[in-house]
Amino acid sequence: MTTHPTTPFDGQKPGTSGLRKKTAVFMQPNFLENFVQATFNAIGGVRGKTLVLGGDGRYFGTDAAQVILKMAAASGAARVIVGQGAWLSTPAASNLIRKRSADGGIILSASHNPGGPNEDFGVKYNMANGGPAPESVTEAIFARTKEITEYAKFDAPDVNLTAIGESHLGAMVVEVVDPVSAYADMMEEIFDFKALRGLFHEGFTMRMDSMCAITGPYAVEILEKRLGAAKGTVVHETPLPDFGGMHPDPNPTWAHELMVEMMGASAPDFGAASDGDGDRNMVLGRGVYVSPSDSLAVIAANAHLVPGYAQGLKGVARSMPTSAAVDRVATALGIDCYETPTGWKFFGNLMDAGRVSLCGEESFGTGSDHVREKDGLWAVLMWLNIIAARGQGVAEILAEHFERFGRNYYSRHDYEALPVDQANAMLNDLRDRLASLKGTQNHGLIVENADEFAYTDPVDGSISVQQGFRILFEGGSRVVLRLSGTGTEGATLRVYLERYVPGPAGLNEDPQEALGPIIRATEEIVGIRARTGRAGPDVIT
Ligand code: G6P
Ligand code: ZN
């Protein structure tokens, strides 16, 4: 064991999902070591503890895993459970932490950000409940990064991470496990695999785009091997260090190959994609795109058809900018619906307290209390199980859902890389005018209320303020505006547009057209185009 002197690096402040930086930044001597040692120090050391370790297969992941193993050994950890090849999807890591009663875990990923020597890398610490560290812990880690003077690292050759089995690094056990099997077994407990095998046996066709990222091996094992979907159902199924140059973010813009196939004449019955680390999802039917907010609502309305939720849902939760489609389902089911700020971490307390079993966000995240992360393949299997149980395709399920609950037309418009000062000035100005907006008429829409969202966690009482601007119009339409917390260049303004149509008329419009009046009213009130000089949004989902 060697103790190495070191000096602090600036900017090792973990964000919502751990520390994310350009890979080259992480590869500087001592950068990773400092952050890992600060993490160990902040959690009271790792002596005698069991940790889970793995990541999404991106460039530098196996090197980082070797460093972390040697550091854990030097700090007295008892055991580290590592996915073979240093692979673990984020939901699979969350599951292993819980199933193996580990003290915590380290996930090596920058989620849906591209990977490679010139792209992004990330390190995230998860707690014993399997969920991301709360702010109190990430703040403590950050504080330690600023005062670090040394780190401990075991002097030893690299551990063989390619073969399953146990070895020792000093007194510490390194247990290399199949990254997929425990996760696939859990899915088998939740879903009706017999019905799903029947579905594929009857000729149901599907395309799963794993975007050269971590869900490939999981999807091949579950969909093709255990459920009998045709070979080749999963595409881009081999995780590559640079994701094959893909931007592994499952949305209509980045999963364009899948979009083209699903909107084309020879589309399969069902399509899905997941992101770099496997926690996001996008689902599609033949010729239909399912918005994440609608997906959450449909899953909530049909969850009882899935064995793991046959007893009903305890409650549901969504982030504030996510559409209120799921609220209508919750009302019909007579269960609670919580509205939280953006970020999966806000759901953890609600799940741990047994208040909700299903959560979702407009940012392509859906999940349940089976783990403490969102879960891309789980969402795909929810849809497949619902399709099998109802004997209907995606388009029919959506149409019936809208007929029953009405439709929350929804779209998100992103203005990327705005000058930070300009974006701040625009929103500060809106904040100053919020109170006076009430009652004003803009392009025919009357403002019923306007405020800035604040949240008091019902479990621990913690308060989060300034979580986005809400402008509610008479008739149930609204626009929400907030700055992205994950952007890497300048400021990204997100504009979330929503309009409720009860039906039966008007359930089949193009969302951008249905939202036209709100788009125009927003421009009149906020002046995004006028103030930024942009002709329109960069990304529309
Ligand atoms: C990450 C989190 C999500 C959150 C999203 C928001 O993906 O895991 O829970 O919804 O960031 O990103 P934004 O860029 O809108 O702040
Ligand atoms: Zn992710």
Automatic annotation (TrEMBL):
Reaction(s) catalysed by this chain's protein: alpha-D-glucose 1-phosphate = alpha-D-glucose 6-phosphate
UniProt cross-references to Pfam families, sorted A to Z: PGM1_C_vert_fung, PGM_PMM_I, PGM_PMM_II, PGM_PMM_III
Enzyme kind, highest EC tier: isomerase
Family membership noted in the UniProt record: Belongs to the phosphohexose mutase family.
MF-aspect GO terms: phosphoglucomutase activity
Gene3D superfamilies: Alpha-D-Glucose-1,6-Bisphosphate, subunit A, domain 3 (3.40.120.10), Alpha-D-phosphohexomutase, C-terminal domain (3.30.310.50)
Needed cofactors: Mg(2+)
Keywords: Isomerase, Magnesium, Metal-binding, Phosphoprotein
Listed EC numbers: 5.4.2.2
Organism: Sedimentimonas flavescens
InterPro entries: A-D-PHexomutase_a/b/a-I (IPR005844), A-D-PHexomutase_a/b/a-I/II/III (IPR016055), A-D-PHexomutase_a/b/a-II (IPR005845), A-D-PHexomutase_a/b/a-III (IPR005846), A-D-PHexomutase_C_sf (IPR036900), A-D-PHexomutase_CS (IPR016066), Alpha-D-phosphohexomutase_SF (IPR005841), PGM (IPR045244)
Protein name: phosphoglucomutase (alpha-D-glucose-1,6-bisphosphate-dependent)
Domain annotation Alpha-D-phosphohexomutase alpha/beta/alpha: ranges: 12-151, 182-284, 293-405
Keyword Transcription carried by entry: no
